[in-house]
Amino acid sequence: MNTRIDSMEAYHQAYEKSVRHPEKFWADIANEFTWKTRWNNVLNWDFKSFDVKWFVGATLNITENCLDRHLEKNGDTPAIIWEPNDPNGKGCTLTYRELYHAVCKASNMLKNAGVKKGDRVCIYMPMVPEAAVAMLACARIGAIHSIVFAGFSAQSLADRINDATCKMIITADGVYRGAKALNLKEIVDNALESTTSVETVIVFQNTNAEINMQDGRDVYWHNAIKDCANECAAEPMDAEDMLFILYTSGSTGKPKGVVHTTAGYMVWAAYTFANVFQYNAGDIYWCTADIGWVTGHSYIVYGPLLNGATTLMFEGIPTYPDAGRFWNVIDKHQVNIFYTAPTAIRSLMAQDDEFVTPYSLASLKTLGSVGEPINEEAWNWYHEKIGKRNCGIVDTWWQTETGGVMISPLANITPTKPTYATLPLPGVQPVLVDAEGKIIEGNNVEGNLCIKYPWPGMLRTTYGDHERCRTTYFSTYENLYFTGDGCKRDHDGYYRIIGRVDDVINVSGHRLGTAEVENAINEHIHVIESAVIGYPHEIKGQGIYAYVICDHLPEDEHATRREILEVVSKVIGPIAKPDKIQFVTGLPKTRSGKIMRRILRKVAENDLSNLGDTSTLLDPAVVDAIIEGAKKI
Ligand code: WT7
Q1: Which of 184, 281, 456, 465 is surrounded by the fewest CB atoms within 10 Å?
Q2: For residue 591, what are the domain limits?
């Protein structure tokens, strides 16, 4: 992008302009894209009712910006490099031209199946190029994609399909996870037993697993696509038409469908990718996320493709065939920019050096981190052992709701400090507030992180329930977007994210609501009540600790624990399985019935020195029983 920042001076100038003249600032950036019609107005906003619109009145199609726009000059540039799960397997590379035709063909496949503009399409796929093709095909014809991570259970999948009333699901027969292959189609079949909206299931053949195909409903991808034309006109979309829904967990209730719209998301994904990673033509960029998470949406697919970049997609896991796989792939494909999560860094750091030393890693120039706070030890290991002290580290703070990176260094430009996400990107106006909602000025302070001005990539609503969106993000503090994170601003004005201050936990970079996990545990027939909290976990960042009350104390605790883990896997997915389960006979509740989680957290952390005031508890004696019981966990 021409508007890319290349020095600290340019950063300060851009930041200043983005605050003083935001509309002019974003109009200049938006002018770099292909529009069918220009906007009448750059921004309309109101945080009270929560109504935000960017590039009002403009029409465009994001795939023309991801694909068509690059064909003339860069048609032969690799767009996607695919590295399969099996290190000896056959990978592939799709050039921009090949990807363009693949997307057009898939667009026609969706149209033939009756998918129309505005329809919701669920994507439940392994990390194969067809997953990206499916996303882009939806966007090309104006269908709204809702990607569900292929590790979620049938029940979670069904909930998401029902909430968005998806008309189609695109899936695969199976998914490889290291040495294992899982049958995905079976999960889809189970999910579809409790849904009514899905008319067509498109099945990509990936593992050749034996699966059931239901006549009239299920078709193989290769059959459905084979006669489709490789050109497909892009649907003109309004700037504020929905591009995708992505479900994420919150403090209360079921996961909500975060909605991103077309133009603002596009501009934000493109601008943040270009600036944070300082991508240059010819660079090979690799983000290890799954497309089922927002990181995959913005920084495997949309951000890189909008910039004409080469993005590597990896099907496997970091430990297969051994803990050197990431480093092996970096050398094999000469990766220049590598973006992963602290949990992966910590788990690889825990392995012997012999998994790293055989690799040169000399192609690397930038390393990224995302998803959770990165501890100093992991930051230093990443910097020294992987970056050889030669690569800038970008610790990027953002959320599903923000669409793209909000606070981050610009690679090899912003001076970094371990564990600090450093400075806000242009267009981002962070504030820290105290418990009363008063803005905390100055440096060397700590508070709850809010954003006081709209940015193009922000969520617009939660699907089907705007009021829930407004109350979740805009009612805690007046006229501010509340992130749910606690944050420190140091003497240099640098930001350091401390972690969630609400009932959301972050397990290996996966976001889970404590209520959601409790509800799952409570589905076990003998469970009466449970309380779930996050506790510090060396590898996962946070582990899940569950205090569980059963109708009678289990005779065989091991067996009941195993059953509870199975129930949680079935209701949510394996990622939500508690690391520790303690059976208790009572929970510390106030007289009004509220669980005092603070006490449960202290017990789980084994920090009993200062339990705080327990006099307001209904029955203070339960605390002693819990402390006693915790010793055996
Ligand atoms: C939550 C958002 C960002 C895409 C992947 C996760 C935590 C995210 C960082 C970071 C400290 C971070 C926050 C945030 N988080 N990045 N660099 N440092 N914490 O998206 O699932 O929506 O989770 O992840 O707590 O609120 P998400």
Answers
A1: 281
A2: 504-630
- Same domain? For 270 and 148 the reply is no
Give per-residue pLDDT as tens, 554-565: 999 999 999 999
Can you give the pLDDT at residue 620? 87
Measured from the CB, is residue 421 less than 6 Å from ligand 1?
Answer: yes
Please give the backbone phi and psi of residue 395, each rounded to the nearest 5 degrees, phi first: -90, 105
Give the CATH number of the domain where residue 595 resides: 3.30.300.30
- Does the pLDDT value for residue 615 go beyond 90? no
CA of 279 to the centre of ligand 1 (A): 22
Q: Are residues 32 and 103 in the same domain?
A: no
User: Is the pLDDT score of 610 beyond 90?
Assistant: no
Structure tokens at 621: 């004696």
Measured in Å, residue 128 CA sits from the centre of ligand 1 at: 25
Encode pLDDT of 106-163 as tens digits.
Answer: 999 999 999 999 999 999 999 999 999 999 999 999 999 999 999 999 999 999 999 9
Strands 541-550, 337-340: pairing is unpaired
C-alpha Rg value of the chain to the nearest Å: 24
Q: Is any ligand 1 atom within 6 A of the Cβ of residue 511? A: yes
In a domain, 3, yes or no: no
pLDDT in tens, 200-214: 999 999 999 999 999
- From ligand 1's centre to the CA of 457, what distance in Å? 15
Residues 48, 113: one domain? no
SS3 of 209-274: CCCCCCCCCEEEHHHHHCCCCCCCCCCCEECCCEEEEEEECCCCCCCEEEEEEHHHHHHHHHHHHH
400 CA → ligand 1 middle, Å: 8
| Best mutation site among 260, 399, 459, 502 for ligand 1 pocket (most ligand atoms within 8 Å of CB) | 399
| Count of domains for the chain | 3
Q: Which two tokens stand for residue 69?
A: 């726009």
Same domain, 314 and 190: no
Considering the domain architecture, whether residues 512 and 482 belong to the same structural domain is answered as no
Residue 118 lies in a domain: yes
